[in-house]
Amino acid sequence: MKKDDDSEPNKPKPEDIQRANKISQVGSNVSQVVKTSPVESEDLDDISSLCTLHEELSEYLQKAESNVYGNAYDLYPGVETIYYDFTAERQNLYATNLVESTAHYVKGCLGAGLLGIHEGYMYGGLWASLGATVILGFLVPYCTYMLIRSAQSMYGRLRVPRLSYADLAEAAVATGPLIFFRRHSKACRYFVELLLFIEFNGTCCIFEIMIANTLKQVLEIISQTAKDLNLDISIYIIIITIPLILLCLIRSLKYLAPFSLVADLFIGTCVITSLYYSLSVAASLSNVPAWKSVHGFLRFCGVCIYSIDGIGVSLPIENNMRRPQYFNVVLQCGTAIVVPLVAMVGFFGYWAWGEQCRTPITIHMPSENIPIIMQFLLTASLGVTFAVHFWVPFRVIWHYISRICKRRKNILERIFRAAHVMLLSCLAIAFPNLIKWMSFLGNFFMGLVVFILPAFIDSMVSWNQPLVHTRLRLLKNLLIMSIGVTLCGGAIYSYD
User: What CA–CA distance (Å, rounded) separates 274 from 363?
Assistant: First the structure.
């Protein structure tokens, strides 16, 4: 009898059995998805996260409110342990190494903004814009680092292997010190999803306008009757809508990935060629104004943030890294590539073309055979990049729409994809000014996504640290949030 009594504490508790059954059920559901639907590995990660996050948060809060275990914030939901290896728990067969992760980060940062940064320099002034590029080139990656650091702290706290941006925002509010805000954690999640949805939709519109502008210029150059082809930009947007719909009907990113890599090479080649032509026509630096106005400088800041920001792709990259604890290496190497490239394109582009700067920068290339061919390739490349970026906002909204659709989801998904692209085309026709798009997105939405939210999340996650560290971090985060608020106000002030 004594032996049985001694073994009694080793028996599993009823709540542990119940928890194991729930996790097993989630695993079975995920396995069933694998058998019935050819989705990507990141899709499975999101499914698992959506199924278990609510349960993890509930158990963590129950543990936190209990006095049985002492300092509950040093423990994990349902398990008394001091360490949680989230890297081992991921078990990702397709994890990326440091080089691949850095390449993905650079690819996520560079895009439409790089092709229009020279026009941003035109609004802000040459030297003022160059100095601001260096400062923003430090602040934006630092905010990204804060977001990743908060996510990795939350992994151990909730015992989950990965979190999306929206997951992290919900978890930070739900476990934060402000009890009043905890009940609104879901609203915080929806708010982040809304911001990302609007931001990526705006990016798709920017790509669409760039394609139309490039196609318009090339066709007018090669035509002997350019006057007859002097069509409005809206006509070209309507023309390219059909091929863009066909590209966006591709439901798996793995089929777009090779084309995306080639597209990035084409874009890089076009930018380098444009820089070569810029240097060949550059005049004296004394003729270029160093500063213009506050209005123009705020507009430049929006374009610059839009050009160097990669916070939207940082967590997906970290979630798929083989060694996520070294994400800071990826961030440092990627920033060392992105910021100098953006500064060179903006500086030399504005120096060469002055007040005649237009977006994209490839428009300034001469009417010769090689530049014309390259601009055709750029048009195709931007189309593929449009399809890749389109996948993000559509996936956000389709997650909720698909709950309503009970039958024929595949057909309905394609219909909604086509309708979504047509809606983006209507927005591009209504607002064809590229710089206004970039400036407003960069100032307002990225002021929230890049500055305010990471600082807020960092404060919510680190509130239970020693008092001195908490006060210093809170002061630093308030300063960063004030920068974000200034940028949001600047978006409204500079938009005319």
Answer: 9
Residue that is written with structure tokens 């060392």 in the block: 336
Q: Which two tokens stand for residue 408?
A: 């024929």
335-353 CB burial, b ≥16 within 10 A, e <16: beebbebbbbbbbbbbbbb
Burial (CB < 10 A; 0-12, 13-18, 19+), residue 277, is buried
Which residue has better confidence, 30 or 60? 60
Residues 168 and 149: their CA atoms lie apart, in Å, by 11
- Smallest Cα–Cα separation from 78: which of 56, 102, 110? 56
**3-state DSSP assignment of residue 493:** helix
For residue 2, the number of C-alpha atoms closer than 13 Å in the C-beta half-sphere is 0
Distance of CA 292 to the CA centre of its chain: 31
The span from the CA of 435 to the CA of 302, in Å, is 9
Backbone φ and ψ for 79, nearest 5 degrees, come out as -135, 130
Q: Name the H helices within 175-184.
A: 179-182
Residue closest to 96 by CA, chosen among 20, 18, 42, 34: 42
Q: Residue 4 — very low, low, confident or very high, per pLDDT cuts 50/70/90?
A: very low
Confidence of residue 495 (pLDDT cuts 50, 70, 90): low
Convert the pLDDT of each residue in 340-361 to its tens digit.
Answer: 999 999 999 999 998 888 888 8
Cα dihedral 21→25→31→34 (10° resolution): -150
DSSP 237: H
Helix, strand, or coil (residue 94):
coil
In sequence order, the 6+-apart residues with CB closer than 8 A to the CB of 308 are 109, 113, 133, 136, 137, 140, 335, 338, 339, 342
**Residue 321: strand pairing partners:** 96
High-pLDDT (> 70) share of the chain, %? 80
- Element housing 274 (H / E): helix 257-281
Q: Report whether pLDDT(45) > 70.
A: no
What would the DSSP string read from start to end of 347-414? HHHHHHHGGG--SSGGGGS-SSHHHHHHHHHHHHHHHHHHHHHHHHHHHHHHHHHHHH--S-HHHHHH
Residues 6+ apart with CB under 8 A from 29: 47, 51
Q: Which residues contact 322 (CB under 8 A, 6 or more apart)?
A: 92, 95, 96, 97
Helix (H, G, I), strand (E, B) or coil at 79: strand
Helix (H/G/I), strand (E/B), else coil: 147: helix
pLDDT the model gives residue 425: 94
Give the pLDDT score at 44.
37
Question: Can you tell me the distance from the alpha carbon of 169 to that of 455, in angstroms, rounded to the nearest whole number?
Answer: 11
Whether the per-residue pLDDT at 125 is higher than 90: the answer is yes
